[in-house]
Amino acid sequence: MAAEGPRGDGGRGDALAPSGHSRLSDELRPPQDDFDEVRAAAVCGSIARDLLGDFAPAVLLLAPLDRERLQALLAYTRTLFDFARQRGVDGERLAQINRWELTLETALSGVPVGQPVFVRMAREERRRAWPTAALDEIAACARRRAIRPRPATPAEADGEARRLARAVATALLGQDPPPEVSDFLGALVRLCTLQRTGAEVAGNRWPLPVSELPETDTPEPEKLLAAVRRECARLRSRLLNAPRGLVELPAGHRRAAVFCLLASLRLLSGLEDGGPEVLERPPQIGLVARVALLVRARWLGV
Question: What are phi and psi of 228, to 5 degrees?
């Protein structure tokens, strides 16, 4: 039996938070018994693009089969964390996560499940088996997020982001990535969180660690911006160390990672250099800049 789609709104902001929650719910809900591969691919592609945001063009640098595999994995992961963010008691969130994970196991065992994410994950399993331990770790990360909505310190937030990034990269590549790659991808997760800080706080959600942003009714913009800038400073050092690990990635994944590195440094500079307005209107990468970064990533490498 296929798992139901996510319901309710998020209880806090993070890099896997939906920017169009109702749209994600619509995509994952009935028809539950739809095995059409083309429609399933379109749903997973849409979820992945929405999740990646400014980093979405990076998938164009992947080979078509690698792109489809990434989109299926991101759609599965995004939904796990959508469950983890829902309001309500821990037990309800954990039950939804467990059901989603068990339904994936059913689909990967060869029993057809007519839900777009599972249709695509099962197809990828037939093409190249998913590393079971990596999928287990992704679900474990979602469970920890459901139980502990906010990390206590930046170090705890970084550790969780790194563990999730490592598990996703391992599931995608079939082997553990270099430590620098896990650090880099974890920094991307944290950066995506920072881009939504203002909107999340306005919605009474708290995307930064407790030590950096204690819960108050109306946090002062200056203090909020200072917390964002401190996070930017921590992320910059990890992003600048990334090239040492990216050279070890397969060519297509390396080019995609280079695009993400270039885009992340541009976005980070926008957050660091901007005033309070970046909390309401976070920096984005325009179409012309995206094309330029794609060309640079494709031809210049690390």
Answer: -65, -45
